[in-house]
Amino acid sequence: MDRTVVLITGCSSGIGLHLALRLASDPSRSFKVYATLRDLRAQGPLWEAARARGCPPDSLETLPLDVRDSDSVAAARARVTEGRVDVLVCNAGRGLLGPLEAHAAGAVSSVLDVNVAGTVRTLQAFLPDMKRRRSGRVLVTGSMGGLMGLPFNAVYCASKFALEGLCESLAVLLPPFGVHVSLIECGPVRTAFQEKLEGGPGGALDGADAQTRRLFSLYQRHCERVFREAAQDPEEVTEIFLAALRAPRPALRYFSTERFLPLARLRLGDPSGCSYVAAMHRAVFADEPAEAGPGGLGGPKLGALPAAPQ
């Protein structure tokens, strides 16, 4: 029986690395995994872990793939020896944290290029063959930051909101071609993602005003608590990917945790946005006095609701 051919972007660490290992070491031996990395010099940890887990030698292969470069994406596609990709996992991503006005233009462009344009380039390379074959699965690493705005994550959230629209539009279009698109909505995950933030944590915070710096300090304290209480191990999250991959009728969205769904429901339940804005502000900036009254931050109290991107 032919194995399911899976190509995953962003496998140097985190979710991509753990998903590649999970599939390559699956007891069914039904997967051939192409784990792609922007720079193959970073593949050492992947192969070390693969040896430790006893992955069969023909179950895993690494390829260079830089989602910022269409030629690099096309070259990776051409090196898939089976001539097809059954499951495409768009996982490559970057974060950007800090006050919007402090971000360098290059950092903003880089995040949008990887997270949004990079996903588009990858889909443009692999979707045509899936449509011709009338078969394919696309899994995209989403984030709760794509379902709700998070303070000090404006550009990151913008990129993840864009992926929501991209994937939802494709999910409506592609079923007649036998192709299904699913978003795996992640909360905080214990990976090196925070260490790889574009421009570093906080960006050029020194140039921000005193109140913004205080708010950022409160946000950092909030995130530390959220990660301490709610962060998931990447192995746990990869099981959600596997469930989506194997589902006979895949859903558009899968959630790695239900902890943040009350906030998502609150955002949808009040189309004006006032309830969500008030609740999120209180949750993150509990020690900061907020303006009340018309146009202020009044609204229903939901307690200290958590918020942190993947």
Automatic annotation (TrEMBL):
Q: Where is the active site?
A: 156
**Record-linked InterPro entries:** 17beta_DH (IPR011348), NAD(P)-bd_dom_sf (IPR036291), Sc_DH/Rdtase_CS (IPR020904), SDR_fam (IPR002347)
Q: Which PROSITE patterns match?
A: ADH_SHORT
User: What Gene Ontology terms describe what this protein does at the molecular function level?
Assistant: oxidoreductase activity
Q: Lipid metabolism as a keyword?
A: yes
Q: Which BP terms does GO give this entry?
A: steroid biosynthetic process
Binding locations of NADP(+): 10-38, 66, 160
User: Any keyword NADP?
Assistant: no
Report the Gene3D superfamilies cross-referenced here. NAD(P)-binding Rossmann-like Domain
Q: Which UniProt keywords apply?
A: Lipid metabolism, Oxidoreductase
Q: Which domain of life is it from?
A: Eukaryota
Binding positions for substrate? 143
PANTHER family tied to this protein: 17-BETA-HYDROXYSTEROID DEHYDROGENASE TYPE 1, RETINOL DEHYDROGENASE-RELATED
What the record says about family reads: Belongs to the short-chain dehydrogenases/reductases (SDR) family.
Protein name as it appears in the record? 17-beta-hydroxysteroid dehydrogenase type 1 isoform 1
Q: Which organism is it from?
A: Daubentonia madagascariensis
